[in-house]
Amino acid sequence: MRCILVDDEPLALDVLSSYLEKVEGIELVARCTNPLEAIRLLSEQDIDLVFLDIEMPNLSGIDLVKSLDRLPQFIFTTAYPQYALEGFDLNATDYLVKPVPFPRFLKAVARAKEKHEAAQKPLTAHKATAPIVPVETMPDFIFVKSEYENIKIDTADIKYMQGLKDYIKIYTRKEDKAILTLSSFKELLDKLPGNSFLRVHRSYVVNVNAIRAVQKSKILIGDIRIPIGETYKDEVLKQLNIS
After folding, report:
1. Which letter does DSSP use for residue 125 in this model?
2. Residue 69 DSSP code
3. In this predicted structure, what is the pLDDT of residue 83?
4. Burial (CB count within 10 angstroms: exposed 0-12, middle 13-18, buried 19+), residue 195
5. CA-closest candidate to residue 12, choices 103, 76, 106
6. 142 bridge partner residues
7. Burial group, residue 147, by CB count within 10 angstroms (0-12, 13-18, 19+)
8. What b/e sequence results for 91-106 when a residue is b if at least 16 CB atoms lie within 10 Å of its CB, and e otherwise?
9. What pLDDT was estimated at residue 176?
10. 31 pLDDT higher than 60
11. Which of 119, 123, 179, 183 suits a disulfide with 170, CB 3.0-4.6 Å?
């Protein structure tokens, strides 16, 4: 994969460059401190992946993406987590918050490689007419608005969610109190990996990885007993492979 780095901070470019030196299968083509320079380069060369800062002079990373007709994969690298939702709305491969830990960087690169390889995979004979669709991956975190800030929650830390009229209470492994957000289950479930979260009641969604046991009409998460709604029961048992 051919990639470029776009960031107005030389130190940030140095960090990402040093990371890329340790990764096989990715060629660093250029380092750009000016987003306009990056646009010119993207129009002249075949680039597969862009690591892109957001807050830059003249043109933000988000505006740069919106200005391109032909988009390579791009991974936002920024010190501002509040742009994450907009970043994923633009179909970003990933969103890295500075300072970027090397293991988190590797995870983002693995996602990019997976999508690149899926797009390059040759068609089999019996599917010769089918289009190649890049594999989409869900982010491993979400942002939810609670009071006056957007709170980042790792999806693996979510134990369960409880619906209260127009609000959702999100219970996690790390927080003593539930996080209250003005949202609906549909809005949250659209952001979460579908194979990990299951609607078990009109008022409850659970993380299947947090389930300790399943009783006749209840799910146990730690010491918490969550009811299984009658209309959801058959689908819940089917998804949990319980006969």
Report:
1. G
2. S
3. 75
4. exposed
5. 76
6. 153
7. exposed
8. ebbbbbbeebeeeebe
9. 83
10. yes
11. 179
Q: What is the pLDDT of residues 68-112, one digit of tens each?
A: 878 899 999 988 877 777 776 778 888 898 899 999 999 999 989
Give the residue among 18, 25, 8, 45 at the shortest CA–CA distance from 112: 25
Structure tokens at 83: 């742009």
141-239 carries CATH number 2.40.128.50: no
Mean pLDDT of 35-54: 92
39-76: b or e for each residue (b if 16 or more CB lie within 10 Å)? bebbeeeebbbbbbbbebeebbbbebbeeeeeebbbbb
Residues 6+ positions from 130 with CB-CB distance below 8 Å: 123
Question: What mean pLDDT comes out for the span 19-27?
Answer: 93
Q: Which tokens is 78 given?
A: 């920024």
Single-letter residue type at 16: L
Q: What is the mean pLDDT of the chain?
A: 86
Task: Give the pTM.
Answer: 0.53
| The domain over range 2-127 is classified in CATH as 3.40.50.10380 | no
Domain ranges of the chain: 2-127, 141-239
The Cα-based distances of 32 to 16, 28, 144 in angstroms read 12, 11, 33
Nearest to 41 by CA among 54, 28, 53: 28
Residue (of 101, 1, 104) closest to 50 by Cα position = 1
Question: How far from 201 is each of 40, 142, 178, 207, CA to CA, in Å?
Answer: 53, 22, 18, 13
Interatomic CA distance for residues 115 and 93, integer angstroms: 9
